[in-house]
Write a structure and sequence with these properties.
heterodimer, A: alpha/beta, Rossmann fold, 2 domains, about 35% helix, elongated, B: alpha/beta, pyruvate-formate lyase- activating enzyme
């Protein structure tokens, strides 16, 4: 699962179309769209809404860890061209002085900039940075669910000193985001690759311990040890690794673990 | 892989305007700069993944405030009485599967402490405390001393400092061939340029990005020709079914390439990791055979079985004694293993280092 969080319905619309996302039931606290791989939640404007929507998306999806989280939306900037697209390299929250640093471990080809998350639409632009109203809260919450390499903030410039935000219509917001959907799709793909790499690493083998346990009583720590021994033997022995039938003589969990440990010792050490 | 691959530099606000910071940034003209308050905001935070960051590590320029020069653990050294270590950098350009840094840090970003002058002052204080005795300072504990030399200018700045202090001994520990700074300077007697090696098969299998054995030996030969004193560090010792053949091949290559007269010290060290480092590394690399095997935990370290470790050490000890004079051989003390001369010798740098990086 890959999570997209936008503040505005007009930001979500081109993504819903591009990724062929379907709507959820009207009783949801946040408007949510899905396909088999992506979940998009429209948070509403502001930090609290963004934090709540991010947590909601996580809980609603069954609390999947280590999946990509992308905050996509418009932002102001003092001088950047309207329509230009940026990744956050730093997110600063002036209300509490905290900063977050997305870890950019892939080459997106996009320029990067600091995002300053403010409470009201910004027009003074005191810093040479992107200004939004959600990124800090989104990042603070999403980075509890995934490593920072998988949590990214992408902003499309909607206004600057020359072109103020006042009167920015939803259709124009959709047009700005819509012009960047392929860039957003590429970011989805890059973060998905990282998440897949991480998932491949975190998978514990074998997936099913039950054939090994049978009717033996196994404590939680013995189960953990069994999993670890089987994983290590699988690494060392490959496909010819141990099978439950070879250890059917082990009367209880302790005997089973001892027999597997002996087998591991026979394998010795290697690289 | 190299300094030029660095795409992003985080800079602590406090040192952003310092000349060394600006010089380093100038050497990375294409890199983006991101200001931070303290390097800890970026480095080693929770929810960072070392292996993912290793795809594209960033550089962090920072000031080190405390603990600049620390006492080396007991038994750490190559014959000196007073032993200290210091780390101008955290993390390494290379990607060695056995490197303990992966167990120590959550982040693969490189931290470079640019306040070299504070390191100099701390070294001066340690020297003064020793009252005229020789004092050893080991660099390359948390990094490779030379791998990012073209960017850091570390050796170029530290060697002249040591040249003026003959009682201060410096060990540069490296797997790099970045020796230009050294070749441009007059060799100094109180510096040992120590190169780490594992045999060819282990190098190919486990040391991503590390220069070939041949190119490291070429670098050593150039340094020897210019009068630099060299160290050979067989660290960590790695077991394979062809252990003896692999290490004999390595020893032949090393001592064919380097004049024995240029050797200051030869040492070897075991593959050992603190248990929490081992657990983190095994989790980061669950398919790595090195961590899947029947390792043992004893005396607060995860290591090869003691009997095997001892056999490996005895073999190396015997073979090295055939090739180098006893006075430059610092056999690692595994259990009660004695030196060829029959007397316990000081443990080499490698002994405390577990499976170290450079």
């Amino acid at each position: 699962m890959i999570f997209l969080i936008t503040a505005l319905q007009s930001e979500a619309r081109p993504l819903v179309d591009f990724f062929h996302l379907g709507g959820s039931d009207a009783s949801s606290p946040f408007r949510t769209y899905r396909n088999g791989e992506l979940t998009l939640v429209v948070s509403g404007v502001g930090r609290i809404a963004s934090a709540a929507a991010t947590a909601y998306a996580f809980a609603r999806a069954g609390e999947p860890r280590n999946r990509p989280w992308l905050n996509v939306g418009i932002a102001g900037h003092p001088s950047a061209e309207v329509g230009s697209c940026w990744l956050a390299n730093k997110i600063f929250d002036p209300s509490n002085g905290r900063a977050w640093y997305p870890s950019l471990v892939f080459d997106s080809g996009l320029p990067t900039a600091e995002v300053v998350t403010v409470d009201r639409p910004e027009s003074r632009f005191e810093r040479e940075a992107l200004y939004d109203m959600e990124a800090a809260a989104f990042f603070a919450i999403a980075s509890r669910f995934a490593p920072v390499e998988l949590v990214q903030v992408l902003k499309v410039v909607s206004d600057n000193r020359e072109a103020p935000a006042s009167g920015l219509e939803p259709a124009e917001v959709s047009r700005l985001i819509g012009a960047r959907v392929e860039t957003i799709a590429a970011l989805v793909e890059q973060t998905r690759d990282l998440a897949d790499e991480l998932a491949g690493r975190l998978v514990n083998v074998p997936p099913d311990l039950e054939p090994w346990i049978g009717d033996r009583h196994v404590t939680v720590s013995q189960r953990r040890k069994l999993s670890d021994l089987l994983r290590r033997l699988a690494v060392l022995e490959g496909e010819v690794g141990p099978s439950p039938g070879e250890f059917s003589g082990a009367e209880d969990a302790r005997d089973l673990l001892l027999a597997l440990e002996e087998r591991l010792e026979r394998q010795g050490v290697a690289f | 892989m190299g300094a030029r691959s660095i795409a992003r530099v985080y800079v602590e606000r406090e040192i952003a305007a310092e000349p060394r910071t600006l010089a380093i940034l100038n050497r990375l003209p294409k890199a983006e700069h991101v200001e931070c308050s303290r390097y800890g905001e970026v480095f080693n935070r929770k929810a960072q993944d070392f292996r993912l960051q290793k795809h594209r590590p960033a550089l962090i320029l920072a000031r080190k405030h405390r603990g600049l020069v620390l006492p080396a653990p007991p038994g750490y050294g190559v014959g000196g009485k007073h032993n200290f270590y210091f780390s101008h950098m955290l993390n390494c350009l290379y990607d060695c599967r056995y490197c303990f840094l992966q167990g120590m840090f959550r982040s693969a970003n490189y931290v470079l402490f640019v306040n070299y002058e504070d390191f100099f002052a701390a070294i001066e204080r340690r020297l003064a405390e020793a009252g005229g005795d020789d004092v050893w300072f080991f660099s390359g504990y948390d990094c490779d001393s030379l791998a990012l030399e073209s960017l850091t200018g570390f050796a170029a700045e530290f060697l002249p400092f040591f040249a003026e202090r003959p009682h201060a001994w410096l060990e540069l520990r490296t797997k790099s061939t970045q020796i230009r700074s050294l070749l441009e300077l007059e060799a100094i007697d109180n510096c040992v340029v120590a190169f780490s090696f594992t045999p060819e098969t282990a190098h190919r299998r486990l040391e991503t990005g590390v220069p070939s054995i041949g190119s490291r030996l070429e670098a050593m030969a150039k340094l020897a020709a210019r009068g630099w004193r060299l160290g050979v560090r067989l660290d960590p010792l790695l077991w394979s079914e062809r252990f003896e053949e692999e290490y004999l091949g390595l020893l032949d290559r090393v001592f064919d390439a380097i004049p024995v007269a240029s050797l200051h010290s030869v040492s070897f060290g075991p593959f050992r990791l603190p248990p929490d480092f081992y657990r983190r590394m095994a989790k980061l690399m669950p398919n790595e055979r090195l961590f899947a095997g029947a390792l043992e935990t004893a005396d607060g370290m995860v290591s090869y079985p003691a009997k095997l470790e001892r056999e490996m050490a005895e073999f190396l000890n015997t073979e090295l004694a055939r090739r180098v004079p006893a006075e430059v051989l610092f056999p690692c003390v595994f259990g009660d293993l004695k030196s060829p001369a029959g007397s316990a010798r000081p443990a080499p740098a490698a002994q405390r280092s577990e499976a170290r990086s450079p």
